[in-house]
From TrEMBL:
Pfam family, any one: Actin
GO CC aspect terms: cytoskeleton; nucleus
Residue stretches in coiled coil: none
InterPro entries named in the record: Actin (IPR004000), ATPase_NBD (IPR043129)
Protein name as annotated: Actin-related protein 6
Main location group: cytoplasm
Keywords, in A-Z order: Cytoplasm, Cytoskeleton, Nucleus
Family that this chain belongs to: Belongs to the actin family. ARP6 subfamily.
Localization in the cell: Cytoplasm, Cytoskeleton; Nucleus
C-alpha cells in the first residue's frame, strides 16, 4: 500500500509518496490584480504573469486550520495532480497538524480524510514528532532532542524523549515568517515606497537580504555610516514582471554611488532593516510583544524538564522551519544559549541541510518503521468507532 506524507504547513504543503521525493507547494489560493475573477490554487502561482498586488487566501489563521473550503480546494488540486494521482482506497496518509490542536478541527480533519477522500488509513501527528523521529533515526544513540520549529505563524520549542513529546516543556513564541514579512512591509512603506499590498514581493526581499546579526549594536553603527564604510547597506532591484521577473540584490561594486543605475529600475535601499526584522525572533519586545525571545524560551522549556535529562536536551537542539534559513541564525542562537546555560553543560545546535522538509523526511522514515501499522487508524476502525479511536491513537 502506498503511503502519502503531507506536512500541511500554514504557508507551504510538503507532499510526496514515501518512496519518492518531496514537493514544496504553496498551501493557499491567490487572486491577482490583473485577473481579479480567476482564483489560482497552490502551484498555479507560476501561471500568474504579473504577481504584483497578489492577494492571498489562506486556509490557516494564527496557526490553526480554519478555512476548510480553501484547504479542500488545495488538497483536491494536490491529490488530483498528475504527479500524485492519489488512489484513496489503496493509500495511507501521514498528515501533520499544530500542537495542542482544537478537537473540533481534529474531528473535521478525520471526517474529510475518511469520509470525503476515503483514505484507506491515516496517521495524524505534528511536525515536531516527525522531526524528532528523523533526528533519532540519524543518531540512534541519542534519547532526547529539542525541536525548534520556526514557521509561518509561530515558533515552537518541543522537547522529545524516545520520540514522545514532553508536553510540560512545549513553548510557543508568537513570531513567525508572516509577522516578519508584514513588519518589513511596514518599515519599507514608512521609509521609502508603499508596499503594503506587495506581500509576495516583500517576502522574496526578506528571504534575499535579511540576516541575523551577531552583534546588533555594532551592525546598527555600521548601518548609519556613509559611503563605502556602510557594508550593511544593500540595493535591491524590484521586479517589474516584464523585463525583471524576479528581484535581486545589486553587486556591492555597482551599488556604491557609481551612478550606473539603468533608468527604469525601481530600487529599494535597505540598511538596518536587513537585521532588525529577524531580530524579532530574539527580542519580540522590539515590536511590543511581551514575550521571551527564542534563547530564553529554550532555556525555560528545558528547565521545566527533569534535571538529569537537561544536559541531553541542550546537546541535541535541531532547527526546522523556514526562518532558520536566515544567515547567522544558528550561530546567534548557539552563542546566546551558551551564555544562559550553566558553563559545564555542552550546547549544540544542528541546522539540517533542508530545515523546511526535515519533518517530511521524518514522515517518510516513519512509514518504513516496523510499528507503523499499529500507529494508524484504518477506515474500518473509524467507521466502527468514529472520532474516539483517533483520539485514542493520535495522542498529541
Amino acid at each position: 500500500m502506498a503511503t502519502l506524507v503531507l506536512d500541511n504547513g500554514a504557508n507551504t504543503a510538503k507532499i510526496g509518496y514515501s518512496q519518492e521525493r518531496v514537493s514544496v507547494i504553496p498551501n493557499c489560493q491567490f487572486r491577482s490584480k490583473t485577473s481579479r475573477l480567476k482564483t489560482f490554487t497552490a502551484n498555479q502561482l507560476d501561471e500568474i504573469k504579473d504577481p504584483s498586488g497578489l492577494f492571498y487566501i489562506l486556509p490557516f489563521q494564527k496557526g490553526y486550520l480554519v478555512n476548510w473550503d480553501v484547504q479542500r480546494k488545495v488538497w483536491d488540486h494536490l491529490f488530483g495532480k498528475e504527479k500524485f494521482k492519489v488512489d484513496f482506497a489503496d493509500t495511507s496518509i501521514i498528515i501533520t497538524e499544530p500542537y495542542f490542536n482544537f478537537s473540533t478541527i481534529q474531528e473535521s480533519m478525520n471526517e474529510i480524510l475518511f469520509e470525503e477522500y476515503q483514505f484507506q488509513s491515516a496517521l495524524r501527528t505534528n511536525p515536531g514528532s516527525l522531526s524528532a523521529h528523523h533526528y533519532f533515526h540519524t543518531r540512534p544513540s541519542e534519547l532526547c532532542c529539542l525541536v525548534v520549529d520556526s514557521g509561518f505563524s509561530f515558533t515552537h520549542i518541543a522537547p522529545y524523549c524516545r520520540s514522545r513529546a514532553m508536553k510540560e516543556g512545549i513553548r510557543r513564541i508568537n513570531v513567525g515568517g508572516k509577522l516578519l514579512t508584514n513588519h518589513l512591509k511596514e518599515i519599507i512603506s514608512y521609509r521609502q515606497l508603499h508596499v503594503m499590498d506587495e506581500t509576495h514581493v516583500i517576502n522574496q526581499v526578506k528571504e534575499d537580504v535579511c540576516y541575523v546579526s551577531q552583534q546588533f549594536y555594532k551592525d546598527m553603527e555600521i548601518a548609519q555610516m556613509k559611503g563605502e564604510e556602510n557594508t550593511v547597506m544593500k540595493d535591491y532591484v524590484l521586479p517589474d514582471f516584464s523585463t525583471i521577473k524576479k528581484g535581486f540584490c545589486k553587486p556591492q561594486e555597482e551599488m556604491l554611488f557609481s551612478g550606473k543605475y539603468k533608468t527604469g529600475e525601481q530600487i529599494l535601499r535597505l540598511a538596518n532593516e536587513r537585521f532588525a526584522v529577524p531580530e524579532m525572533l530574539f527580542h519580540p519586545s522590539d515590536i511590543g510583544l511581551q514575550e521571551m525571545g527564542l534563547p530564553e524560551a529554550i532555556a525555560d522549556s528545558v528547565q521545566a524538564l527533569p534535571q538529569e535529562m537537561q544536559p541531553h536536551f541542550y546537546q541535541n537542539i535541531v532547527l526546522t522551519g523556514g526562518n532558520t534559513l536566515f544567515p547567522g541564525f544558528r550561530q546567534r542562537l548557539e552563542a546566546e544559549l551558551r551564555s544562559l546555560v550553566p558553563a559545564h553543560l555542552p550546547v549544540s545546535v544542528l541546522l539540517p541541510d533542508s530545515p523546511i522538509t526535515y519533518s517530511w523526511e521524518g514522515g517518510k522514515l516513519l512509514s518504513n518503521h516496523p510499528d507503523y501499522d499499529e500507529m494508524l487508524v484504518t477506515r474500518e476502525e473509524y467507521e466502527e468507532n468514529g472520532h474516539f479511536i483517533c483520539e485514542e491513537k493520535f495522542d498529541i
